[in-house]
## 1
Amino acid sequence: MAKNRESGGLPSRREVLAGVVGSAAVGAGALAGAQQAEAPKPRPRAPEDPTKMQGRVPSPVGQRSAFETPERMVRVLEPSSSSRTPLQYLQGVVTPADLHFERHHGGIPNIDPERYELLIHGMVERPTTFRLADLKRFPVESRLRFLECSGNGGTAFQNRGRYPRMSPQEMDGLTSTSEWAGVPLKLLFREVGARPEATWFLAEGMDAAVMTRSVPMEKAWDDAIVAYAQNGEPLRPEQGYPVRLFLPGWEGNASVKWLRRLELSDRPFMTREETSKYTDPLPGEKARMFSFGMDAKSLITFPTFPARLDGPGWWEIRGIAWTGRGRITRVEISTDGGDTWEDAELQEPVLPKCHVRFRKLWNWNGRGATLMSRATDETGYVQPTREALLQARGSYTRYHYNQIRSWRVESDGQVFFAG
Amino acid sequence: MAKNRESGGLPSRREVLAGVVGSAAVGAGALAGAQQAEAPKPRPRAPEDPTKMQGRVPSPVGQRSAFETPERMVRVLEPSSSSRTPLQYLQGVVTPADLHFERHHGGIPNIDPERYELLIHGMVERPTTFRLADLKRFPVESRLRFLECSGNGGTAFQNRGRYPRMSPQEMDGLTSTSEWAGVPLKLLFREVGARPEATWFLAEGMDAAVMTRSVPMEKAWDDAIVAYAQNGEPLRPEQGYPVRLFLPGWEGNASVKWLRRLELSDRPFMTREETSKYTDPLPGEKARMFSFGMDAKSLITFPTFPARLDGPGWWEIRGIAWTGRGRITRVEISTDGGDTWEDAELQEPVLPKCHVRFRKLWNWNGRGATLMSRATDETGYVQPTREALLQARGSYTRYHYNQIRSWRVESDGQVFFAG
């Protein structure tokens, strides 16, 4: 059979570097990979015939194959920084915890779980401090849910495809899906006797940034959890160990990590993080605040840069879609730049506020083609074009960049971001 | 608030050791932890106030908190070996890939994915060799599914609670849930032109054991996949990297890892692995072969040894249930040794052939109590008692130990396996 190398793997260090060199989007940020560029490592070796030698014995904690070296794309912007999930490398919807994206404003704190305390106070009958063991004694809930940074996709929006050597990781790697587990926040608010006049609460982290956000009480009564586990195990440090707030379907920054305090009030707190940041400029010198919900979005993960199709024929277009409003009901694919659209298949089960996989077989004729995907959610909301987003929010908008993306397949099989 | 330490964490090395010392179940096996017992490590340190210092920057691949050191329980029985998932340490259903149980008969082979080939031949029109890139070009399917070793729980069955210092990990740690992704086997069988007279196929691994099993063709036309990804990323080496067979709901050994050959035939191959092993003795010098399906089973994971309840009051009984026949429809809990039963809550979504979480609040009065769980699946099958299993299969039976387990809570809060 012909060798049909999909080339869908993780970009090499060189490829990542090339993408970055071609991109002004990095701004003041330093890409760790670029700063620490090393000589390429020699390829690992394996025996010619593995059946002829006894294999190695188990280890208490497993390791990846030496042939697989996925990496998050790290950006350090002192004092704040981020890392991006290698979306083009992954199948399914679960993101391994050590490849989940991260974003923080003061680095990752080191917290002793035995000394951890969460204070709930303000408009409550019984101000209370909970230790980690106290939280674990409450009923636990576990849910597969996406988490996305509100700034995800900003690079693609600003650059409009002028920097085509951009992978899904670089463009949209600030979204991941995990199974989050913890105590429903409403149980804690009932325990402390939240007063009926409380309409907002402040969530405060114990990192160097003392990250704070105001959250409407409705979210607590709905589906907010105080999470202490991710994909089965305790939270990873960069995800808020030992405890974070988790607000399904809402922009990531509001799911405050390293959570140490919840204060109930009858108004929002207007903190630094919701005034200097996380407010979206609109046309006409207006702005919208508290734009928590993440709108429907879809993203092709194959074929995308740096993959290369090695010839015409059947290829499966693959990607992920998600919405903060509930379930994705439809993803359409265009292979002619948006002139015609056809439905992709969605991988069951389609869970609410969770990445869902879509796929569609495409018989490539070997000529240039432009691939696009468009998601619709259960509220009827349709992922907008870049033009529609511009019209609604103006060119200076920040955050919530869910416009349709395009990928250009060249006749030589190379694939580039096209706006 | 009083300190309510759940003690639901991973057993310490000392506790694991204690459980092993008290257990004849280890048999000829050497527990790696016991052999390599070291002085306890000093507790990691953390700053008094993490807000007063800049945290660390992101890394390309994340690490666990220094305060969290989960381990699989490793047993090396040269040339075969296993490792067990720390079930009492985990929440939700997703098992991190590096904590997924493993079992192999010739160690873990080291395979170069570029040289990997899968041959499909026998009763087919077009014998074909597929490279990894060829397999990835077929449509991909991803599913959250459990995988359980057919021998899981044998220790508990044979020991009947005579060795009470046994954790869920030691007793039943050969089951885990992951999101498995790959190409549906039926697509490959259509590609090679499987002949209608083919009723079985042989699956062969490229490990030192050259593991082989015969599988009915029905499973291929149903839901078998040729898997190359687990929880998003490429398979881990101990899970069959780069490619394994995955047969949802069937005993683990039939999901042949490091898959190199599929041969179609009109009869089973009667290989070593299905004659010397994986055939279940029955009463009257009979035996049953090809007992692939895993019956319904449930397992309490908290409170269990080595946890200790630090006082009377409300505690949440938690665990997992699963069945190879489809969906779990009910899990009942008894706190009085089986005299009375009440329904536990199941965590949505309840997926077929997948672990599901159950939980039930229990108001412990501080006196001795015996906890049990009982699962029912969508076919109406009910998890049997030990007596019923003995009657059906005899005391010399091996494999498929899904009898109801009991845990004894002593008045001092200690919890022990009770049969």
## 2
Amino acid sequence: MNLIYLLDLCAVAVCAITATLEARRRELDLFGVIVVAVISGIGGGTVRDILLGRLPVYWIHDPVYVVVGTVAGTLTFFLGRYLKLPKNFFLIPDAVGLALFTVIGTSIALKLDAPWLIASLMGVITGVFGGVIRDILCNEVPLIFRTDIYATASLAGALLLIALDHFDVSQNIAMLWAMASIIAIRLAAIRWHIHLPHLRSDI
Amino acid sequence: MNLIYLLDLCAVAVCAITATLEARRRELDLFGVIVVAVISGIGGGTVRDILLGRLPVYWIHDPVYVVVGTVAGTLTFFLGRYLKLPKNFFLIPDAVGLALFTVIGTSIALKLDAPWLIASLMGVITGVFGGVIRDILCNEVPLIFRTDIYATASLAGALLLIALDHFDVSQNIAMLWAMASIIAIRLAAIRWHIHLPHLRSDI
Amino acid sequence: MNLIYLLDLCAVAVCAITATLEARRRELDLFGVIVVAVISGIGGGTVRDILLGRLPVYWIHDPVYVVVGTVAGTLTFFLGRYLKLPKNFFLIPDAVGLALFTVIGTSIALKLDAPWLIASLMGVITGVFGGVIRDILCNEVPLIFRTDIYATASLAGALLLIALDHFDVSQNIAMLWAMASIIAIRLAAIRWHIHLPHLRSDI
């Protein structure tokens, strides 16, 4: 469990860092950046907890999550202008974070006896809703509604986890396979520009 | 109760269909469309359940709602370009859905001993908040804040339901009258272009 | 307690009034204005209650809050065009409202044994999230993410309250000092144009 907790905090940090870099295009002050960074990191799990009735939400009694998001956002805010990172530097950490959030969210919902469809949905919400709230706060149509296979990778991994769980595969193995499939689908989609069909706006 | 459940699912489907048609103007991919469609269908009841503390929210243990929203959104996504429906095709189903969501939301709040004012508000929230969240996700000022009598029809019906309930009219009769009044007010407002006063922006 | 309750209602009214004046620039009808006004007044406390699991949220069984917000919004809607108030008329009531919401939110979280960092966060959320939701509904990047010391004043006051509480200062004295510090910081920031650092968008 300790490894998952550590990875979870790393995923929060990665979310906060990418959110801060995204927020650059907006005229946000330090406070705004930190709020957007923290919400990106913990927003998905918060929405999941509220919908499932796991209240108070998970970070109320464990402030480490908020601290990690705040520190990551603040450091990126001040160091971001000096660091010239390659554009795709965060693609792999981001895919790992998506995978981790998804399997954690799905597992939690399964433990609460949610039906499998809802459990997979909770995995997707945990994985992607931090970014959705970030984009709403920044006044943009959420990126994941417009862009390549992201939530779809999360959904596929959540369904795989549920299937493996159904056939009594041990939990650790199931989580590893689910995470590996999410990361693989996500990176493959980026590498070969795989998209879902778009609504044609000319109709 | 079975009839109400069936009508409720129909209302979710209508919401999902109209949301998908609305989403056309945006560059959403299939995933984005389905999310917007499902949220339009179940968002109002979800917000009501969270505010009232009825957790987990109603669709967690009954995935049929999510399935209906997903199927309706997906079919509309793929068939929408071939079907040329008259522009006002959904006005009546939409009014029926508004009426149904409103009376369901109001009834639930009354059963939890909410004061009448709050119960009517829960009816309105159940009726209109799916659309509000849809518009926020699509990065627009929610339509109901700008447009003709919509939430007002919902509020009038909710208050009628509460009044009839107060005078011990049987629940089924009260719900029918309330729904009829919402549909009548909504359609009358559309037919004769009745609006609430607007803020003049030139002041 | 009665004085705090009364001040709380006043703060709701002030929020509703300023939200209505803000909403002028948007083409909202009467219903939209009232919704935006009420949400500005009670939104912060609502988000706090949901995150902390204090459900149903505080205004469900005390409709006075909704009534005050509705009346304040409606009166401002109709009288706003005749009243020519000086532009900074609401700066002081607004600062008092921020201070009051903050100390109420922080106190509630402390009573629920939240860690001090989370308690201060709940104070800030209570103080500023009504305005955040208002701006999201009006399709704008929330003002507090872009503007001068506002949430920062709230945070400073919340931390002071927690420190005084820790050293067993009596609650009333602690709340007064915390409120005074929030009001002082807020007004000083306005008077001398003190800002947090902004992200430079040219990097």
